Amino acid sequence: MTQLLKNEKGYMLVLTLAVILIIMIMGLSIMTITTNGLAKNKTRENIVQGTDLADKGTEYMIKSLQMELEKYITAGNVGKKGFREKLTSLLTSSSMICKSDGTGGIEIPGETGNTKVCIDAGNIGNVYSSEGELMELKKRVPLISTGIVNGKIKKTTTEVVIGTDAVPDQLRYSLSTNNGGNLYLHGGIEVQGDIKTDENLILSSNATWFSGNTAKWQPSVRAKLTPGPGSVAPKIIFSKENKGVYDLKKFEEYDKHISGANLEKTSYYTKYNPAIESDQNSISNLFFNSPKISVLTKTTIPQDTLDITKKITDKYKLSSNKYNYTNNLNITDSNHPTRNINKTDVVFVSDTGTEKVQETYTYFDKVCAKSFFGICYEWKQEEKTGTRWVDKDTYKLGNMTINGGSGKREITLKGTYFVYGDLVIRNVNLKADAIIYVQGKVDISESTITGVDNNSTLIIFANGNVDMYNMSVDSGQNGATKIKGFFYTNQDMIMYGVGSNINLTGGISARRLILTAVRGNTNNGNYLSATQQAQITNGVASQYSRLKIIYDQDLISTYTSFKRDEEEEYITSLSDPEIVKRTN
Questions:
Q1: Vertex 94, ends 89 and 100: CA angle to 5°?
Q2: What CA–CA distances, in Å, run from 515 to 27, 112, 144, 176, 467?
Q3: What are the C-alpha distances in Å from 304 to residues 74, 195, 343, 552?
Q4: Strand intervals (E) in 293-441
Q5: Residue 394 has pLDDT above 50, yes or no
Q6: 126 exposure class (CB count in 10 Å sphere: 0-12, 13-18, 19+)
């Protein structure tokens, strides 16, 4: 019995030691695994931080190049030759380029590591249009950025297109405002491409239409944004700081809403600041069934506004004009003399007269400077002002009307038109490949507008208001009026997609731009409910938008294909940098 107890105690000792040994081995294994895991996590963290630093270095270099070019073009009148030379010298500057010994470029110290970014000058490439033409004011620039964190190196190569197209800045966006105007998106509009506003962006979940002179607020959904060709995300660009996004929540007082009189009233609007990151996320969430939206504030540069009056009056009765219409130009059928117009021909509409006007002028009069006993012995010339009547040339209004009549005839329009008056397009199936400069207003209704062929566009630049309405009223999804064009005005533009049904491939720019639409079919003033319009099936909106704006990536090349006025155009704006390739 005593021997049995001794054996049991011996087994217990061995068992205890075995358990302790196993626990020690497991503990060491866990510690090793944990240590290795921490080390790997740290390595991964360093790599992630290195990648982030490299990306930030690329972003920093792009902004630096843009700022340098913007500084150059805003310092004075810069022509194409000067811009080409500046772009070349900047991209090949010894302080910017990568050198064979590993030096060169910009070094950026940071809290978590260091970044070095430089231009691979030996591989700078040319940029070509979709038609294969050399874009001489742009370059494809490879940037090599290296992020270093705790000895871990992460290098990225990014190719970015930098430069300008030397065309009006407004042609670069689906929608934009100019001359300090607000952008209004009412209801279920759908926009593909970037939008830019010179002032505020104002949203409403209700569309607007008019019954007589009374504004009606029709329940709908908010606007939908999608990226344009070659873009990852749609962008909203504010050209000035301290501007806001205002979401309307009180649907009344239309006139004050449009004038902006109630913007700062919190009972009427919810305001978001595009400069605040948390508000940027909120702004993105305001849009209906849209991907995450990039909200940006662009460095302000001089407005690229068009002096339309000067462009028109400079064309008065030039011998190079194809036709000079001294009164109105009325095109009502396909046999009008304008059928002989070619794309590069010029037509002037209106005439001049004279009128007496009073003007102030300066002259010099002989007056006495010194006299003795009433006798002047020194004279001087003294500048004086007076008024006189003179003859001055005045322009008579000459309107241009395209009207197909009750039968809505098909009319073809080509060429460049300068109209010192108004433009009316009504009751016509218009095939256009034309640019029209309009001194007055533009009224488009009850019509369809397409191109002469797939490469043609109607481009209108106006000084007055532009209205587009009653286009394919109450038609279904496949019956939309399909317009290929671009509209610019120094005043206001409004486009209706409530009863109307419009697909515009191109873009719009106005001082104040108002777009309004519902989604789905309509019938004699009857619309789908807001709930029906908001239906989504498998991530796709169930109801189509009655007003779609789709950016035309060929707009710029279309504009430049017309006969240009200027031998040497001044560069007033830059294209947004476009990242075309990125490798790790």
A1: 130
A2: 69, 47, 43, 12, 11
A3: 12, 16, 25, 20
A4: 294-297, 323-325, 329-331, 346-349, 351-372, 375-396, 400-403, 410-419, 423-426, 429-438
A5: yes
A6: exposed
DSSP for residue 257 = H
Residues 6+ apart with CB under 8 A from 535: 541, 542, 543
3-state SS class at 545: strand
* DSSP for 280-329, written as a single string: HHHHHHTSTT----EEEEPPP-------HHHHHHTTTT-TT-SEEESS-E
User: CA 169, CA 178: separation in Å to the nearest integer?
Assistant: 10
Q: How far apart are CA 161 and CA 27, in angstroms?
A: 57
Please, what is the Cα angle at 197 between 196 and 201, to 5 degrees? 115
pLDDT at 567 over 60: no
Instruction: Name the pTM for this structure.
Output: 0.69
What distance lies between CA 542 and its chain's CA centroid?
28
Contact between residue 447 and residue 430 where contact means Cβ atoms under 8 Å apart: yes
Mean pLDDT of 274-300: 88
Q: Does domain 46-166+576-583 have CATH number 3.30.70?
A: no
Q: DSSP character for 519?
A: B
Q: Cα–Cα distance between 142 and 135 in angstroms, integer?
A: 17
pLDDT digits (tens, 9 = 90+) for 478-502: 999 888 889 999 999 999 999 999 9
Residue 327: C-alpha distances to residues 111, 277, 356, 399, 417 (Å):
71, 56, 22, 7, 14
CB atoms within 10 A of CB 556: 20
β-sheet bridge partners, residue 195: 175, 236
DSSP reduced 3-state for 17? helix
Q: Which of 54, 159, 143, 136 is nearest to 96 (CA)?
A: 143
Domain spans, the chain = 46-166+576-583, 169-312+397-561, 354-392
Query: What values do phi and psi take at 295, rounded to 5?
Result: -110, 120
Length of the chain: 584
d(CA 221, CA 207): 8
- The whole-angstrom separation of Cα 550 and Cα 227 is 10
User: Of 428, 435, 436, 440, whose CA–CA distance to 465 is shortest?
Assistant: 440
Residue whose tokens read 């120094």: 490
Are residues 198 and 177 in contact, defined by beta-carbon separation less than 8 angstroms?
yes
- Give the strand pairing for 429-438 and 410-419: parallel
